[in-house]
Write a structure and sequence with these properties.
By secondary structure, the chain is α+β, with helices and mostly antiparallel strands. The chain has 5 helices and 9 strands. The radius of gyration is 29 Å and the shape is rod-shaped.
Length: 181
């Protein structure tokens, strides 16, 4: 039975199975079937233990990247009539979350007739953003929270705020257009 052997320099040679095994044994390495279903089967000479180690290392790195903390969203809930101590507690929790690299969703709930005064929610969120500016910023281009039904929310991203010079050109144009409107 013949196998196509891939050499270290990328060349491919067709050898018998026994010749390929002999080459691998002379090199002190293993003969690894890369593609057993092709005709002839494709094999490569390599250190199988090192190959498995590298493969597992790549899988662990991919798993670490997928479990990135910046993908986790923590929500903090406020009301327009929140007390100063409760506000400070939410501020402390927000600082902890942003310090750990989490995104924070700040939500203001309106109860009853509070919904007729959205400016209270805007002022509360503006105060929160001002006090947390050293740890995070909002990625909303208008810096205005969205109002859906009885709740107003905005997402705060960890890190420092970008200046206009650091924003990509396409985003800078959008911001200028919105300021003129």
């Amino acid at each position: 039975m013949n196998v196509k052997l891939i050499l270290d320099d990328g060349q491919q040679v067709v050898l018998t199975r026994d010749e390929a095994l002999a080459r691998a044994k002379d090199a002190g390495l293993d003969l690894f079937l890369v593609s057993p279903n092709s005709e002839p089967p494709v094999a490569k000479i390599l250190d199988y233990g090192h190959y498995r180690y590298e493969k597992e290392k790549k899988q662990k790195d991919a798993h670490k990247k997928s479990n990135n903390k910046s993908n986790i969203l923590k929500e903090l809930k406020l009301t327009p009539r929140i007390g100063q101590h409760d506000f400070d507690v939410r501020l402390k929790h927000g600082r902890e979350f942003l310090g750990k690299g989490y995104k924070v969703k700040l939500t203001v709930f309106f109860k009853g007739r509070e919904g007729t005064h959205p400016e209270l929610g805007h002022a509360l969120i503006a105060e929160y953003l001002e006090k947390i500016a050293d740890l995070g910023w909002t990625d909303s281009p208008t810096l205005r929270p969205g109002l859906l039904g009885r709740q107003m929310s905005i997402v705060i991203v960890p890190g420092r705020r970008r200046t206009v010079a650091e924003t990509p050109p396409a985003q800078t144009v959008e911001i200028k257009e919105k300021q003129n409107a």
